[in-house]
Amino acid sequence: YTSSLAIYGGFGLVEWKATEWLRAQAGLRYEGSAQTVAVASPFATNTNTRAPVSRQYHNPVPSLNVTVSPLANLNLRAGYSYTLARPSFRELAPFIFFDMVRRRDVAGNPELLLTTIHHADLRAEWFPSQDEVFALSVFGKQFINPIERVVVGQGSNFDFGFRNADQAQLAGVELEARSTLGR
Predict the structure, then answer these.
(1) 3-class SS string, 146-172
(2) What is the pLDDT of residues 90-143, one digit of tens each?
(3) Closest CA relative to residue 96, chosen from 44, 49, 51
(4) Whole-angstrom Cα distance, residue 98 to residue 53?
(5) Are 82 and 117 in contact (CB under 8 A)?
(6) Backbone dihedral angles phi then psi of residue 144, each to the nearest 5 degrees
């Protein structure tokens, strides 16, 4: 197969410092892409897939961060961002290939959709000195149309393919500490 992926975009960011203790950043990135997979294999999974699989994506990708600093060495931040994940060439390809690690056939899926991700987080940062930080973050992600590897075979010969799930969620906590040896 032959394939191509072209990505182009632009980004703008506005920062607003309302007071000494409150600031906000709003960003907007425009991302466009063109993705093509052309098949020349006699082993294509469907005789109607000889035409190239072609996808055009045009996505505005916003972000927003608000930071409150009630003390000079303490930040409380809330953030939101929107990101995306395109299908890879093999996930999108309309043919079967062999996975050497799992020793199974894998079929691409030309019907896959773009995955979009909403991300929100809250973070508290304390800076006891110029070279030190202690931080706690909680975050969550909402995936729309996530791409997942699925079993498509029957019997004892399980083969794999790809499909979009309706949605998925991820939540987590992150601790960060950086200190100097002087402490």
Answers:
(1) CEEEEECCCCCCCCEEEEECCEEEEEE
(2) 898 877 888 888 778 888 899 999 999 999 999 999 999 988 999 999 999 999
(3) 44
(4) 20
(5) yes
(6) -110, 125
